[in-house]
Amino acid sequence: MHKRVTFDDKLLPYMLLAPQLFVTVAFFIWPSxxxxxxxxxIEDAFGGNTRFxxxxxxxxxxxxxxxxxxARITIFFSLMVTLIGLALALLLAVMADRTxxxxxxxxTFLVWPYAVAxxxxxxxxxxxxxxxxxxxxxxxxxIGVDWNHQLDGNQAMWLVIFAACWNQISYNFIFFLAGxxxxxxxxxxxxxxxxxxxxxxFWTIMFPLLSPTGFFLLVVNVIYAxxxxxxxxxxxxxxxxxxxxxxxxxxxxxxxFRGSDFGGSAAQSVILMIIVxxxxxxxxxxxxxxxxx
Length: 293
What we know:
70% helix
């Protein structure tokens, strides 16, 4: 039987929806509309000379080799941040879900990094891995690794990946731990009585029951990797060395505010928005089928 909520006051439903509608319009619809309009024009730095150019900004962008290089490293960066962040957080959550001494302190320490802003995380990793004064760079040198992320593009890429993962692991850890603690212990105990080892209990009981949490975190982490890592890149490498860590979200800001290419920057932001929306739809369309609620 289909239940339907009714209100005595006809204005009440609209009043309840108003705050959410205001937030959606003010922080998504209106900025998105502005970005689309900006991507179709060329204007000077002061906005006094504006010319409508249709899709010329997109055409210029899609024939730019630097843009495609940025797109390629963004795919690699986002894939690594999502996979490593989710895998490590799940491992830590499984360890924290066990009965062990000092579990409260262990969980508290794992949650703390989420309170650190991405830009601050970038500064911390930059100091730790500074090739001249960083303590971790010193120990890498002691074991034979010639570390200098300011000159080596591969080292810079892995450094920003680890910094972005470290900043997001706490968020993933909280959700995975909550999901693990919601699994009935009687199921796991019954499997143990039947002779299932820890690995089999995890893959046949715990992992399928965690699939709704994992799917939610997959969507959130992909969005984080594309949009939420600007602070880490800006504080740690500023897109360098060369353009080896110049991911799309950093290139949007760099070209717009530092290069004064407002039309090109807006076109990049529109393409980035379409990519993330497409990925989210694909995830809901194909991956959600394997989720068991």
